[in-house]
Design goal:
Blueprint: E1 10-13, H1 40-47, E2 53-59, H2 61-64, H3 70-86, E3 93-97, H4 113-121, E4 131-134, H5 137-145, E5 149-153, E6 166-168, H6 171-179
Parallel strand pairs: 1-2, 1-4, 2-3, 4-5, 5-6
């Protein structure tokens, strides 16, 4: 079996609003509240061959606010990855920032910390060849701060098309009209 040559391409995905339904005014605090967006599981399986790494980067200030614990979040991500794997997809790693937005120095997007953590774990990542997919301006600015191509999932009105290089309805639309072409 021949090993796939590393290209340095990584796909960075925001979680809420890209992989699962965002809960307006609330946080996904338990696995029971986690709801995959339509077509996401199939899209993740189709995207896998095009990227060396698929990584999730997610702000989770619900931890900082005491709405959930690190263990709660770990359970959500463990289950999310298991379902994605059973559907033919794969997430290499999930990075999260539990900091409050109001904290002076924090690791929340748009700060590049989670991207730097990923690069430390996977040195082959080349940000210039990588893509950030998100549904908010913070996601897009995170990608821009690291020199990535930025993709807006426009099913949500939270992100500005001015910050995105491309805009798609969902991950399947992104796959069909950007990655596969």
């Amino acid at each position: 079996m021949t090993k796939k040559k590393k290209t340095g391409k990584a796909l960075f995905l925001d979680r809420d609003g890209v992989i699962n339904r965002r809960l307006p005014g609330d946080y996904v605090k338990t696995w029971k509240e986690f709801d995959f967006l339509p077509g996401t599981l199939r899209a993740l399986g189709l995207l896998r061959p095009y990227f060396d790494r698929i990584l999730v980067v997610t702000n989770q200030q619900g931890i900082g606010k005491g709405k959930m614990t690190e263990a709660d979040l770990a359970n959500i991500h463990r289950n999310m990855k298991k379902v994605i794997r059973k559907s033919g997809g794969h997430i290499d790693r999930v990075y999260h920032c539990p900091d409050l937005e109001s904290r002076q120095a924090n690791c929340r997007k748009p700060n590049p910390d989670m991207g730097k953590w990923a690069k430390a774990d996977f040195p082959e990542i080349d940000f210039d060849r990588s893509v950030m997919v998100g549904d908010t301006d913070m996601d897009l600015l995170f990608g821009k701060n690291l020199g990535m191509t930025t993709i807006l999932i426009a099913a949500s009105p939270a992100g500005s098309k001015d910050l995105a290089e491309h805009s798609f309805r969902d991950l399947m639309d992104f796959y069909l009209n950007f990655v596969k072409k």
